[in-house]
Amino acid sequence: MAVGVLALQGDVSEHYEAVKRAVGIYKFNFETKYVKRKGDMKDVTHLIIPGGESTTISRLMIKNGLYDVIRQKAFKGELAVMGTCAGSILMAKNIVDDSHVEPLRLMDMDIRRNAFGRQRESFEADVEIEGIGKYHAVFIRAPIIEKCYGGCKALAGIDRGIVMAKQGKFIALVFHPELTEDTRIYREFLKI
Ligand code: GLN
Fold first, then answer.
1. Is the pTM of this model over 0.85?
2. Total domain count for the chain?
3. How far apart are CA 171 and CA 129, in angstroms?
4. How far is the CA of 27 from the centre of ligand 1 (A)?
5. Which domain CATH number covers 56?
6. Residue 49: closest CA among 93, 78, 94, 19
7. What spacing in Å lies between the alpha carbon of 36 and ligand 1's midpoint?
């Protein structure tokens, strides 16, 4: 079994290092690998889609065929997927007011890109995450989840909206777990 970090653009190496740390701390039996092309997905049971630019990541994913492979494995129930920041945008069924990104549409949620505008491009806040507890979160040009419906469930929120959600084997968070030492979110993901 392998944890794959989608390595097309964005915070790739930071996630890779964080996964390795979590695997060591919690003694999971996972290999950690970079996913750049279709063939890399073979033994991947858990995929992380990093933060970066959702437009770029979606374009490259479609171009190299990963878009279809990820969707097929995910809908067959063979793949857990965690999308962070730009990655969370790609998890959504619907991106509000935006046609530049083709999301994977794995989760029943509406998400808005760059929801905090220029004044508040990045900030940190303590959030209360269901099943984890208090967590110090780093937001960078973050989207916001405006609505969860169907099988999607909100796990954490701030005044502006939902910041973390889960649907079966899929998790979306609009902040950056790879930028702090706290590995609890990786632990919960690898437990799936
Ligand atoms: N604003 C970026 C986007 O819309 C996401 C920012 C990030 O991942 N840090 O794709």
1. yes
2. 1
3. 12
4. 31
5. 3.40.50.880
6. 19
7. 20
